[in-house]
């Protein structure tokens, strides 16, 4: 893809990560997540779940990933958590506004 100047998408990266995880090549999957983040493509929830599940499995088997990979995954997870919290706040505000409007109509 790079030779053809085609930029990979989150789906492309997700497919690679899932494939490496299924082959039990966790280090390579985590490396791909790191590359993805470095390229400015934010992993979605599915990619992160797959990566973290394999990351935990790797730790259980006594394999320690590179610190930089862990640091990148951790930073991305925190970013995703902030985005989720902001989204939930927006949803809660909309629900409160709807309830107030419905209360005014009765």
TrEMBL record:
- Show me the PPR repeat boundaries: 9-43
Q: What is this protein called?
A: Pentatricopeptide repeat-containing protein
PANTHER family the UniProt entry points to: PENTATRICOPEPTIDE REPEAT-CONTAINING PROTEIN 3, MITOCHONDRIAL
Determine if Membrane is one of this entry's keywords: no
The superkingdom listed in its UniProt entry is Eukaryota
For this chain, the family text in UniProt reads: Belongs to the PPR family. P subfamily.
Report if keyword Cytoplasm is assigned.
no
Coiled-coil residue windows: none
Q: Specify the species.
A: Arachis hypogaea
Tell me the keywords, alphabetical order. Answer: Repeat
Q: Which Pfam families match?
A: PPR_1
